[in-house]
# Entry
Amino acid sequence: MRNGFGSRAKKTAIGASVVLGSLGIGGAGFALLDGGNASATGTPAATTTAPNATKGHKVGQFLRRHTVESTITVKTKNGYETYNLIRGTVGAISATSITVNSPDGTSLTATINSSTKFHNTTDAQLATGDKVGVLAEAGVARWVNAPKTTSSGATS
# Structure
């Protein structure tokens, strides 16, 4: 049976659920964002309405813009995998590693290797103090993202 939601809405909802769950606010966060109460009773509401797909999109946008540091554990067919996400400024960069300092005082040092993917930048273009986001798995940077820059060098 099809529920009428597109795959993008499903992916956003699943991603938001994973992040909210890792932050410990899970379903209660969705209820509070919807203006409802976060009671723990198992009684369903008398009337059911279809969830608003844009609500999940807004939650996803909020999390993408405001997450500073997070650790996420995902169950895969090979067991559990832990990912670290951090946004901040480059504290140190070399051909083999990157250290990112977040505004809340935490830092992450990850290895750069052939599996590291760079978006909007390269490892040679990065310098101390540049803004970046890094996704690391088992101490290896899997994804490094810098803000898009214009031809004048300003970030957008």
